[in-house]
Amino acid sequence: MPIFWILLASLAFACMGVCIKLASADIMAAEAVFYRGVIAWLLSQAYVVLQGHTLRTPHLRAHLLRAGVGCCGMGTYFSAITMIPLATAVTLAYTSPLFMALILWLWYREPVRPMTAAALVLGFGGIVLLLHPTLAHNQWLGAGVGLGAGVFAALAVLNVRKLGQLGEPEWRTVYYFSACSALLGLVWTLAQGGFHPLTGRLAWLALGMGGFGFIGQITMTLAFGRGRPLTMANLSYSTVVFASLFGIFFWGEVLPPQAWLGMGLILLSSMVTTALSRRPPAPVEPD
Question: Which among 97, 71, 216, 85 is positioned nearest to 146, based on CA atoms?
Answer without folding.
Answer: 85
